[in-house]
Amino acid sequence: MSLLVIAALVVVALGRVDAGQGQGTELEAERQIAADTAQSERLAIDTEATSLGRAAAAYTPTTPSTPAATLKVLTSGRKAVLGSALFDPLTGRPLAADGLPVSLTGADVVAMASGQGAIRPRLMTSGNGCCLLYFAKVPSPAQSADTDQDQNTSPDPSRRPWLLVLSEHLPRLTAYGDGRTADLLDAAGGVLVTTAKGTASAAADSGLPVAAAHAAKAQGHRSDASGSMLGATEGGRRTVAGWARVASATGPGHTDDLGLLVLTSRAVPATTASVDYSGFGLTAAGALAGIALVLWLVLWFCVQRPLLGLVVSARRMARGAVGRGADAWDEPARPVPVSGFGEPARIGRAMESLRQQLTGESGPPGPAARRGPGCRALALVAVVLVAGWAIPMIFLLNRVDTATSVPASVVADQQARTEIAANRVWQVLDQSHTALGELAGGLSGRSPAAQTEVLRRALADHKQFRSMYMLDGSGDITLRVGARPLRSSIHVPGGSGIDTVDTSGRIPVITVYAQVPGTNGGEPAAGSVLLGEFDVKSLNSLLSRPQLGRVWLTDADDKVLAATVGHRAFPALPEPGLTRLIRSGRGTPGTATSAVHASFAGLSVDAAAPLPQNGPTVGLPWHVVTADGAAARRLPAAQAEHRTALAGILGIAAGVVCLGWLHAVVIRPLRTVALLGERLAEGDRRTVLYPVNHDEVGSLTRSLELIRQALVEGDRGGGSSLADTPSSSRSRPENVPQR
After folding, report:
1. Average confidence (pLDDT) over 695-711
2. Do residues 163 and 291 both lie within one domain?
């Protein structure tokens, strides 16, 4: 019965493999790419807003500081600034301005300057296009003179902080994957920025941006909403598009009020080749049903039917042996039919010998006949039959072809998402490097106590660091905040950058470092270096993205620095193919690579992308490597392989369990009864037969025990048999009617 159930499951499972759902897979991949791109855009805006706020908060004006001088100090190191202005918190009028005009039409400058907390960026549209306005509160000279009062709650309005406003271009939007177009939209669906990689293959569809904006509005207040759409069809190709909000997924963020959307699109074939697996499912199910029928017939004719006949004969002999029933004296005269196979046949021969001993038809019992194959051989044959069906299902049938079963678009999407992940890692490293450089510059000329306080506040703001500390010229730590440093090297780095300090410990030690300027005209103090050690957990969480699979960050030796799966320090990648994939792209620096690898676990879509070679990662040969099982992609061929193998595993498991149960409940008790019956027929009268089972085997055992007792009584009476027993002693009971 269980095999028939599995046969039905095979028909249902393989019949539901939809070969036409490849477009659904492409839509989901496009949605994830849009979400990844939106996250990178959000990270860029958050980084700029946070950096400006920290720089403004760290600024210490002096009494003669003018608004123009303050504005110059705060904007001199920012290359992307289009225009800047410093506003009076009392009147809302600009105190100083530089670059393109900054318009705050409709904004209450006084309320923004006097409000609590940070001010979120705003989108500004002007004749020069769209730009983002970043805000920060800058301590005024009057406020700095009175440090005992809070800058936002001071009762003296003249001591309120100035409002700094910077206008910058929208973050650079990158399209990943050849033939993909990426657009940055406003809340109404207007295109603010557009870019494409390679030859944009998406069919022109002017309705997609507006449709994406409507879809985002329908999601309500979900800040991290995303989705996918189908666009126009042109030349046998149809546009698939994904959209995602540029907003925080974990809580209130700088980008939540901007209403920005990322829309990505590309063209895919409008029709896909269809493969029908229902015919294979019916064939496989029919073969399993046939095996189940053959096994049932074999067990019925070789075991069950002969066993039922033996039970009837044993009961008849037992009634004759104890003299019960109206025709008890006629029962032993009937020969026992010897039929079946193995143990039933052995029991039948033993019972026939016992019958002859009861009736005196034979002399002293002789040795039992030589034993042939038993019911265990039948069980073994049954296992072989089921395995003959299951093993090809697991290892041979419906196996996907590495070269053709995974569409090229799926591999390209994995590579694109890996490139986005590598860019996201670069963004965090670049942000950390910039922040540490600004922090090192602010430590110059301060007392150790003041430096410690500055680093303590900075460590609380920069969650990616586990500790910050300063080194002197000999490599000794002169100041530290946070956890105990893991570094074991005493090398004092020069300049600034990112490095892996220790490559032999239990935890990778990745540091960002920058020189602390001295007080003599800004020259670095001898051996004074500020370092920040990365928390590996923050890097692990940075790599994790939905439906990207397993992700690793590797160093120059292809050893793992961080991963989304558990790992020890500096292990090799789990698959040799991943290492080969990294090395295959090193011939062309900055190039991502991808491939499909086959293993015992199935097909895996893998990709490797180097970190962008600019900023602090120049010369840093790190890679982001991803591997996602093809089964997780819900590709028709992969689903068919997975379900076929699962059916084979279920089939062989059910066969083993059922035949194991048959061996424990039927075959083994039958072997025991056959052995005891042969011993009884050979003359063993002392072994008592205890019925253990409450089934046919138990009934057979009880009858044989009654026969044994009758033979013992006959032996005590001088070896007389039922044939020699007087008829008066075998008379009918009084309550039995005459025939």
Report:
1. 91
2. no
**Cβ-based burial of 73 (10 A; exposed 0-12, middle 13-18, buried ≥19):** middle
Query: Does one domain contain both 624 and 694?
Result: no
Look at residue 250 and tell me if it is in a domain. Answer: no
Starting at the edge strand found earlier in the chain, the sheet holding 602-610 runs 560-563, 550-554, 623-629, 602-610, 593-599
Partners of 599 in beta bridges: 602
Q: Are 303 and 375 in contact (CB under 8 A)?
A: yes
494 token code pair = 């020069």
Dump strand ranges (E) for 213-309: 226-234, 237-245, 261-269
If asked whether residues 349 and 422 sit together in one domain, one would say no
* Domain stops at, among 168, 190, 223: 168
Number of C-beta neighbours around residue 37 at 10 A? 28
Helices (H), 264-368: 278-299, 305-322, 343-359
Which letter does DSSP use for residue 232 in this model? Answer: E
Q: Which two tokens stand for residue 647?
A: 């059916």
CA dihedral 42, 44, 47, 51 (to 10 degrees): -130
Token look-up 């507006």 returns 210
User: Mind listing the pLDDT tens digit for each residue in 176-226?
Assistant: 988 899 999 998 999 999 999 877 554 456 789 999 999 999 887 667 789
Q: CA-CA distance, 169 to 124, in Å (whole number)?
A: 10
Domain of residue 312, residue span: 281-394+655-730
640 or 79, higher pLDDT: 640
CA distance 534 to 425: 12
As for how many domains the chain has, the answer is 3
Decide if 162 contacts 108 (C-beta within 8 A). Answer: no
- The CA-atom distances, in angstroms, between 116 and each of 90, 112, 152, 153, 254 are 16, 8, 7, 9, 15
C-alpha 52: how far from chain center: 38
Residues near 115 by beta carbon (within 8 Å), at least 6 away in sequence: 152
- How is residue 36 written in tokens? 């990844």
- Indicate whether 629 and 713 sit together in one domain: no
Which residues are within 8 A (CB) of 347 and not within 5 positions of it... i.e. 6 or more apart? 310, 670, 673, 674, 677, 700
**Claim to verify: residue 585 and residue 701 sit in the same structural domain:** no
CB 486 within 8 A of CB 503: no
The maximal CA–CA distance of the chain, rounded, in angstroms, is 141
Q: Are 42 and 253 in contact (CB under 8 A)?
A: yes
**Spatial distance between the Cα atoms of 514 and 442, rounded to a whole number of angstroms:** 12
Q: In angstroms, rounded to a whole number, what is the distance separating the alpha carbons of residues 532 and 232?
A: 50
One-letter amino acid of 313: S
Specify burial of residue 386 (Cβ count, 10 A radius: 0-12, 13-18, 19+).
buried
Please tell me what DSSP assigns to residue 404: T
pLDDT tens figures, 2-21? 889 999 999 988 887 765 55
| 719-737 residues labelled b (16+ CB within 10 A) or e (exposed) | eebbeeeeeeeeeeeeeee
Contacts of 325 (CB under 8 A, 6+ apart): 319, 331, 736
Residue that terminates a domain, selected from 122, 145, 168: 168
For residues 179 and 266, the answer to whether their CB atoms sit within 8 Å is yes
* DSSP states along 497-517: EEEEEESSSSS-EEEEEEEEE
Highest mean pLDDT: which range of 30-34, 119-123, 361-365: 30-34
Nearest to 461, CA basis, from 11, 160, 55? 55
Q: Which of 429, 426, 427, 414 is nearest to 625 (CA)?
A: 414
Residue at 602 is within a domain:
yes
